[in-house]
Design a protein that fits this description.
This protein is an alpha+beta fold. Strand 30 and strand 31 form a beta hairpin. The protein is globular.
């Protein structure tokens, strides 16, 4: 299930993952909150055609939905002219919504609530826009009836009405994967190099996208609180933010995204069979290569530290489903037992886990508390110790937010936690902060320090870290012009920040030790999205070692680990079809890899671990919420099928 603000948001920000997911889903529902009426003229702004058209809000909204249906018909059936069945349904208590069902694939449905983006004169008293509805500045937002809609009358949604409508749809669909817009966009300096475009204020996205993300997350939290969604993963996607960073998609994936967007935009010029046309001509000629749709980026990418071996060598894996952590444990046979729930809710979709010497697990996650008032949102990192016995009460402890002294709104811009164990048993907790730099806390075994900012700027979320020696941790992150790098000294919590002048990464990096004592850095290249590697020489990064390893683009962190049994580095990425792409890399060379693909869609990113038998295990979480596990073979001609454990 996907909840979007406008008719083209899923095509811009979810594709190409959306097109792939539609072919694997037993059911899919996309919900569009607004009518997207804009200025009511179906032509590019500033064109002669635009000037000649009369304002027709209901007609333009209908044209946009026609375009969306055409794009979905093409994505699912390869037929932009596919037949749809339309009907009015009741969502929540009394409101009607427009539902479109793809006739030859009836498990695909589109629902439009048709809220006005800008309520017209004559609207009910207290009416306002969707953002005003969230904050309480408006008591209602009215709907329109687009031309040709089966809905019989307009309705005025209150804030609770809208949450209730989304909750109704969640209960009806019971999705195991919920895709939303970004509820917490980064701040963005707008200048000559970074024009405002459609960003709102000093943020990196349109406010309607943000508010749609907040409404979706609020509805999901209520659904989880009443016992629903126990297998559900929530993934939020960046919006206009993506135009500020290198593309993480392959040329083929960008071409696919362009194709479906152009169908939505009626760029094929098909003869109109009605008064409003087949799509949204405002975007029909836009190229996505360097614009708002050049990449597909997760708001909460997390890291690779969600699975690890315990002191006994058996693997444990953790994920967030339904706002709670779940835990899988490896059994004596090498498989995994079904998951069990760790008490504690309201968590965003990533958990970091560290094994303690006594067999316990220390977990870290971000808790999300939503309010109507922008300055009262809470996004704090929480931690708990999960006893090895598993029969003690689990108590979560707040570690706060690096932005505690900043403007309250900055607290929403926290990154996902990454934690590292030091040889003396201490724990270094890392997080991207609101200033797009690095903040840390240190745990010495008895107490935590306060948050310490360690500088850096313009980095993306998705940190990588490696312990260099007993008192130093190297931290790496994707920067705007290269790779951000800190050498953090513990317990002093001071750092040398010296960015590496690599290519600008197109996504979070990975770093791993090699058998000769050197380190290997990997990240996706801009535009091609193939994997680029660098090595250290004598412990220092040597940029002349850059090697293009090939591969496939996609969102989220990639992961890599040297496997002694195979004498090679195992690299895994979530590719631009949302499946798994895996390669073995000879640590002595930098030649392009032979990539193997497995099409089962996943969420988040992979973990690569070594079990007690010394064998590599590739792990991921499925879109059904189960743990996927595979044992890659370096000599295999295909990737072994990933077995799922609920």
């Amino acid at each position: 299930m996907a909840v979007m603000a406008h008719q083209d948001d899923d095509l811009y920000f979810l594709n190409p993952l959306l097109a792939s997911q539609l072919h694997h889903s037993a059911t899919h529902l996309t919900v569009c909150l607004t009518a997207g009426e804009a200025d009511g003229r179906n032509a590019p702004g500033g064109s002669a055609a635009h000037a000649a058209l009369p304002v027709d809000f209901e007609g333009f909204a209908a044209a946009r939905f026609n375009g969306l249906r055409s794009a979905y018909g093409e994505m699912v059936l390869g037929d932009r002219n596919a037949k749809w069945r339309r009907a009015a349904i009741t969502v929540g208590s009394t409101a009607e919504a427009d539902v479109s069902t793809l006739v030859d694939a009836p498990w695909i449905r589109l629902v439009s609530l048709n809220l006005w983006c800008a309520p017209p004169p004559g609207s009910p008293v207290g009416a306002g826009s969707l953002p005003q509805l969230w904050t309480g500045k408006a008591t209602v937002t009215p709907t329109m009836v687009p031309l040709g809609s089966p809905v019989s009358e307009t309705f005025a949604y209150s804030r609770e009405n809208l949450i209730e409508a989304l909750l109704h749809l969640l209960r009806d669909v019971e999705p195991t994967l919920l895709w939303t817009m970004d509820p917490d966009p980064d701040r963005q300096l707008h200048d000559k190099a970074n024009p405002q475009h459609a960003d709102t204020g000093d943020y990196s996205d349109h406010l309607a996208h943000t508010i749609t993300g907040l409404f979706a997350h609020e509805a999901a939290q209520r659904w989880f609180a009443e016992g629903g969604g126990s297998a559900t993963t929530v993934e939020a996607f960046r919006g206009y933010y993506v135009r500020r960073w290198p593309s993480n998609l392959s040329p083929e994936a960008r071409a696919l995204k362009q194709r479906y967007k152009d169908i939505y935009g009626w760029a094929d010029g098909r003869p109109a069979d009605g008064p409003v046309g087949h799509g949204d001509r405002k975007v029909g000629g836009d190229a996505i290569g360097t614009g708002n749709a050049s990449g597909t980026t997760l708001r909460y990418p997390g890291s690779r530290t969600w699975a690890a071996p315990g002191p006994n060598g058996k693997l444990s894996a953790f994920a967030v489903r339904g706002g709670q952590v779940v835990h899988w444990q490896q059994t004596g046979s090498g498989g995994f037992a079904p998951s069990r729930v760790i008490p504690g809710g309201g968590l965003l979709p990533h958990v970091a886990a560290l094994a303690t010497p006594n067999g316990d697990w220390r977990l870290f996650a971000v808790r999300q508390e939503l309010t109507a008032e922008p300055d009262r949102h809470v996004r704090d990192i929480w931690t708990t110790v999960l006893p090895a016995a598993g029969d003690a009460t689990v108590r979560w402890e707040s570690l706060g937010n690096p932005a505690r002294r900043n403007a309250p709104s900055d607290r929403r811009n926290i990154g996902m936690p990454h934690a590292v164990s030091l040889p003396d048993g201490g724990v270094l907790l890392l997080a991207r902060n609101a200033g797009k730099g690095l903040s840390v806390r240190w745990y010495d075994g008895t107490s935590w320090t306060q948050w310490q900012e360690l500088g850096g700027r313009d980095i993306q979320d998705g940190l990588a870290a490696v312990v260099v020696d007993d008192h130093h941790v190297e931290v790496l992150a994707a920067g705007r012009t290269g790779t951000g790098r800190w050498l953090v000294s513990v317990p002093e919590l001071v750092a040398e920040y010296a960015p590496l002048e690599t290519e600008a990464p197109a996504g979070p990096p990975a770093v791993t030790w090699l058998p000769d004592g050197e380190r290997l850095l990997l990240f996706r290249r801009r535009d091609s999205a193939s994997v680029l590697s660098y090595r250290t020489r004598g412990g220092e990064w040597d940029l002349s070692t850059a090697a293009d390893l090939g591969g496939h683009g996609g969102p989220g962190p990639l992961t890599a680990r040297f496997v002694s049994e195979a004498g090679a580095v195992l690299v895994a990425v979530r590719d631009d079809a949302s499946g798994s792409s895996v390669a073995w890399l000879d640590p002595a060379g930098g030649t392009p890899c032979r990539w193997l693909r497995e099409s089962t869609p996943i969420v988040g990113g992979h973990a690569v671990q070594i079990d007690e038998a010394g064998c590599p295990v590739l792990l991921a979480v499925s879109t059904a919420g189960g743990l996927l596990a595979s044992r890659p073979d370096r000599l295999g001609s295909s990737l072994n099928p990933m077995k799922e454990v609920p």
